[in-house]
Design a protein that fits this description.
mainly alpha, Hypothetical protein af1432, two-stranded antiparallel sheet, 11 helices, globular
């Protein structure tokens, strides 16, 4: 018979609600001006990973990839999100996220698999973790493509800068780089429709 630790479950449930309150810079689709939350982003990434692995028949462990997707930003529950154009936040990102990881480990020592998965993702030691990291770089491009660049326009993102930045980040992942290039090939002829003028 299962042994449930209800009080601990309640605490973890509260943590998930805190994760849902962490706002990202990306906007929700469907005409909303609300920002996407970290929990929404993680769910979307997990589902997108599952879809891509299955439909493109990638030789990856879908369960492991989905676990990585669910935890890839989990430290942000305490560290907060750091936007790619936030040069000041980038200076302390690693230290803040490591402190958050240690806090999570201290607060939920019973959830060993969570901590192991976060560490394995951060180590980027397997194909699944590298796939999720690369897909995480493509996901906001796909979201902006679906919204005619709404987020890029709002944030003043430059097309050439974005392309160079993403190509650098995706240099070592062939599949996700190809996906990114396909999206950019659709955007470039109409880039004035997607980027600030």
């Amino acid at each position: 018979m299962a042994k449930f630790e209800l009080d601990r479950m309640v605490e973890f449930h509260k943590l998930l609600h805190a994760f849902a309150r962490v706002e990202r810079t990306g906007l929700r689709i469907h005409g909303s001006d609300a920002k996407e939350s970290d929990i929404e982003h993680s769910f979307f990434l997990a589902m997108l990973a599952w879809y891509i692995i299955e439909t493109a028949q990638l030789p990856l462990d879908v369960s492991q990839a989905m676990r990585y997707a669910l935890v890839h930003d989990f430290v942000e529950v305490y560290a907060g999100d750091t936007y790619i154009l936030d040069s000041e936040g980038a200076k302390t990102k690693h230290e803040r996220e490591e402190a958050a990881r240690q806090r999570l480990e201290k607060e939920f020592p019973e959830f060993k698999a969570l901590h192991e998965t976060i560490l394995a993702y951060e180590a980027q030691a397997d194909e699944e973790s590298r796939f999720i990291k690369a897909l995480d770089k493509v996901d906001p491009v796909l979201s902006n493509y679906l919204q005619s660049g709404r987020g890029w326009k709002e944030m003043g993102v430059d097309f050439d800068w974005l392309v160079l930045h993403k190509r650098e980040k995706l240099a070592s992942h062939v599949d996700m780089r190809e996906l990114f290039e396909e999206i950019i090939a659709r955007i470039e002829p109409r880039k004035s429709d997607f980027f600030p003028k």
